[in-house]
Design brief:
With 234 residues, the chain is α/β, with parallel strands linked by helices. It is built from nine helices and eight strands. The chain folds into two domains: 136 residues, HAD superfamily/HAD-like (Rossmann fold, 3-Layer(aba) Sandwich), CATH 3.40.50; 87 residues. 44% of the residues lie in helices and 15% in strands.
Length: 234
């Protein structure tokens, strides 16, 4: 019997507002590249860039890097995003574009389908938790997302000092939820950090593929919106 549902945050529970496309187009326009930014290209680029982030965080966590290391990472991250739009730039220019983007007012905001799904699941008596690689406290994360009244707890890399897919992140969430691994489900958008990480500790995973990056994924149940989640929870 499932007693707890755990969620990744970025790409699963929340996304950027303004949208990634809007932010990238604005930042690129300052360098004469705005017209080359397309919604389809941004989806493709972020799929590659986020996979890069997952791999890098697993081997050398971003939160532990100095400024030079972070600049190197974000220059390459942005280069991969832009490559999805067919824009080929060197990492130094990519970093300047990324810094322009980062300076723009933006916020990580829950997707429209999140609160209704959380309310339904909590109404069934399920414990709900977040597991995030963000370098902030769980309480601050829930507050920033406006989900304090809908989610029981959040586990972050700042608190456990490891990043998904490290087992400790998932084991800490299980402990906070007061359940065994076979009594929990993990919902996330990254196959390696979220899905494979959950499987390693015995948690049943569900992939949420909002951007359609993994149409043929069959290693576990796949959904494209949280509206499809409640029927999958027995």
């Amino acid at each position: 019997m499932i007693r707890a549902v755990l969620f990744d945050v970025y790409g699963t529970i929340a996304g950027w507002s303004p949208s990634r496309y809007q932010l990238q187009r604005m930042a690129c326009a300052a360098f004469g590249l705005g017209d080359s930014v397309t919604p389809e290209g941004i989806l493709k680029g972020y799929a590659a860039a986020d996979a890069f982030m997952t791999a890098e965080n697993a081997s050398r966590p971003l939160r532990l890097r100095d400024k030079e290391g972070r600049d190197e990472f974000f220059g390459e991250y942005e280069r991969l995003v832009l490559k999805g739009c067919g824009i080929d730039v060197e990492s130094d220019l990519a970093l300047r574009i990324f810094n322009r983007l980062s300076a723009a007012p933006s916020a990580l905001t829950p997707f429209d389908d999140v609160v209704p799904a959380l309310v339904e699941l909590r109404g069934r008596g399920l414990t709900l938790g977040l597991i995030s690689n963000m370098n902030m406290s769980g309480l601050d994360l829930l507050s920033d997302l406006g989900l304090t009244s809908h989610v029981d707890f959040a586990v972050t890399s700042l608190e456990v000092r490891v990043e998904k897919p490290h087992p400790l992140a998932f084991q800490t969430a299980l402990s906070r939820a007061g359940v065994e691994a076979n009594e929990a489900v993990m919902v996330g958008d990254q196959p390696s950090s979220d899905i494979e990480g959950a499987v390693r500790v015995g948690i049943g995973p569900i992939l949420i593929d909002r951007d359609g990056n993994y149409p043929r994924y069959d290693a576990c149940p796949r959904i494209t919106t949280l509206e499809q989640l409640p029927p999958l929870i027995p």
